Amino acid sequence: MKNILEILRVATRLGLTSFGGPIAHLGYFREEYVHRKKWLDEKAYADLVALCQFLPGPASSQVGIAIGMIRGGFAGAVASWVGFTLPSALSLLIFAFLFQKFQMQEAGWLHGY
Questions:
Q1: Can you give the residue ranges of every domain in the chain?
Q2: Quick one: average pLDDT of 73-97?
Q3: What integer pLDDT is reported at residue 24 of this predicted model?
Q4: Going by C-beta distance under 8 Å and a sequence separation of 6 or more, which residues neighbour residue 18?
């Protein structure tokens, strides 16, 4: 259980601080999982990234889930996915709530002017 909580904590921190698309995320993941945590070596990480780039969908999400799976099995994969995805999902929900509450449908900044 301790391992799962660590996976969740690290993935959540990455979810809160990793901006950019999947390519940028892979750089953040490499720094965290290979250099800081040493959960994988460079070769294993490169192989995992190469494998995930063949799959449909964002490679960064798949790499994060796979690292969670390697570290903590199925529960680790779920913890990694939840931790990395939840911050952005909550941000979108909060924005949608505020958008509706303050009736911003005609806001110029939203339409690009």
A1: 2-104
A2: 95
A3: 95
A4: 24, 25, 28, 29, 84
Measured distance CA(53)–CA(107) in Å, rounded: 38
Q: Are 40 and 34 in contact (CB under 8 A)?
A: yes
CB neighbours of residue 5 within 10 Å: 11
Measure the N-to-C terminal CA separation of the chain; round to a whole number of Å.
50
Distance CA 85, CA 91 (A): 10
Three-state DSSP string of 24-88: HHHHHHHHHHHHHCCCCCHHHHHHHHHHHHHCCCCHHHHHHHHHHHHHHHHHHHHHHHHHHHHHH
Q: What pLDDT digit, counting tens, does each position of 47-71 carry?
A: 999 999 999 989 999 999 999 999 9
Contact by Cβ (8 Å): 64, 70: no
Is 82 exposed, middle or buried, given 0-12, 13-18 or 19+ CB atoms closer than 10 A? Answer: middle
